[in-house]
Amino acid sequence: MRLISFFIMLLMICSCNRAKKPEEVKDNSVPARAELSKDSKIFLGNRLFSEKTCITCHAVDQKKIGPSVVEIMTVYKGKSGDIVSFLKGKSEPIVDTTASQVAIMQANIEGFLRDISDVELDAIETYMLHVDKLNAN
Ligand code: HEC
């Protein structure tokens, strides 16, 4: 029941953001930010991880087409990398730098992640950190 009401709340947040057209934002007004709790971010990140097809190439702790979430997070934690920046196409890959592999992931950044919001990217990162924490040794 709590999950359902939470889901409805999320839908409302999403639809509000979509409904807002750029011209409705006045000069100095700070757009209302949906400040999500950590649990909400994990929930949203989990959903996006399947919706944006990440899950088809990234399993939790096994290599599929791409490195596992645990492997990605190990490298990012070790090198203090910034996942959000990578997913925005603003920083270079640091996990698997083989050209053919990099090309596969870049196609996602230019495709599935093209119009994604900062709130959503933050949620994906929070979700990946959460999965890693549960599964890394
Ligand atoms: C078609 C397969 C495929 C899909 C779908 C995919 N990835 Fe990847 N991903 C890869 C491959 C291959 C690599 C290894 C190349 C690399 O490290 O850039 C990778 C690497 C990464 C990395 C590490 C980048 C680095 O620094 O090296 C992150 C983070 C990542 N993916 C996140 C995601 C997220 C989030 C999604 C969903 C929006 C996603 N991936 C969807 C194949 C995929």
Describe the protein in words:
This protein has 137 residues and is mostly helical. It has a single domain (38-135), classed as Cytochrome Bc1 Complex, Chain D, domain 2 (Orthogonal Bundle). 59% of the residues lie in helices and 0% in strands. It is built from seven helices and no strands. The protein has helices at 2-19, 38-51, 54-57, 69-78, 83-87, 99-110, 118-135. Helix 4 (69-78) crosses helix 7. It is globular and about 45 Å long. The model has no long low-confidence stretch (mean pLDDT 86). The structure holds heme C. Heme C (HEC) binds at residues 52-54, 56-58, 65-67, 72, 83, 86-87, 93-96, 101-102, 104-105, 108, 112-113, 124.
Layout of SSEs?
Layout: H1 2-19, H2 38-51, H3 54-57, H4 69-78, H5 83-87, H6 99-110, H7 118-135
Bound molecules: heme C.
Heme C is lined by residues 52-54, 56-58, 65-67, 72, 83, 86-87, 93-96, 101-102, 104-105, 108, 112-113, 124.
What string, H for helix and E for strand, traces the elements in order? HHHHHHH
CATH class: Mainly Alpha
Secondary structure: number of strands: 0
Gyration radius, in Å: 16 Å
Average predicted local confidence, pLDDT:
86
Proportion of residues in β-strands: under 5%
Which small-molecule species are bound to the chains here? heme C
Measured between the Cα atoms of the first and last residue, the distance is 33 Å
Largest sheet composition: none
CATH superfamily: Cytochrome c-like domain
Low-confidence segments: none
* Domain count: 1
Given helix and strand content, the structural type is mainly alpha
Supply the number of helical segments. Answer: 7
How would the global form be characterised?
globular
CATH topology category name? Cytochrome Bc1 Complex, Chain D, domain 2
